[in-house]
């Protein structure tokens, strides 16, 4: 039994050592402040801006002067821009993207091939992974990259 399991474990460990390409949407510290807020990112930080769409609902309202109701859209939550830290472009290469794809696959978010290329499947998997943490975006956040072990965490942040 050990003769069969040991080669499998070694193969999986070696496969996890591959790396991947860069994420196209990161920009170096060109911050677009959110409405009504002034943001000052740390020097050398990279950020992404994600647009969260407005949430509306359809309600039935009475028709004035007539019997009956008609549908009307009501704003539940306005659209907003969310600024969040992302890995900088020089941190993202083909090897990192491949590692990201493997990490997402190991967690059940990605079922595509490990190509090391940032494609729509990778972006959708990143969105599925980050959504439960409150970031519904296909752009990999720095926090998610750190959680997956793809980017180091400084001692000051521990």
From TrEMBL:
UniProt xrefs under PROSITE patterns: PROKAR_LIPOPROTEIN
Pfam families (alphabetical): PG_binding_1 (PF01471)
UniProt entry keywords in alphabetical sequence: Signal
Lipid metabolism keyword on record: no
Residue ranges of every copy of the Peptidoglycan binding-like domain listed in the record: 97-140
Stored InterPro entries: Peptidoglycan-bd-like, PGBD-like_sf, PGBDSf
Signal peptide: 1-22
SUPFAM superfamilies attached to this UniProt entry: PGBD-like
Protein's name according to its UniProt entry: Peptidoglycan-binding protein
């Amino acid at each position: 039994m050990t003769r069969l399991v040991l080669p499998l474990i070694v193969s999986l460990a070696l496969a996890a050592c591959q790396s991947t390409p860069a994420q196209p949407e990161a920009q170096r510290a060109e911050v677009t402040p959110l409405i009504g807020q002034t943001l000052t990112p740390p020097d050398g930080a990279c950020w992404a801006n994600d647009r969260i769409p407005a949430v509306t609902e359809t309600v039935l309202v009475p028709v004035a002067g007539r019997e009956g109701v008609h549908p009307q859209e009501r704003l539940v939550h306005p659209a907003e821009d969310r600024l969040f830290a992302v890995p900088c472009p020089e941190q993202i290469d083909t090897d990192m993207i491949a590692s990201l794809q493997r990490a997402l696959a190991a967690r059940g978010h990605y079922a595509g091939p490990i190509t090391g290329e940032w494609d729509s499947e990778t972006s959708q998997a990143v969105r599925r992974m980050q959504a439960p943490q409150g970031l519904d975006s296909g752009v990999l956040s720095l926090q998610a990259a750190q959680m997956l072990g793809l980017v180091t965490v400084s001692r000051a942040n521990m």
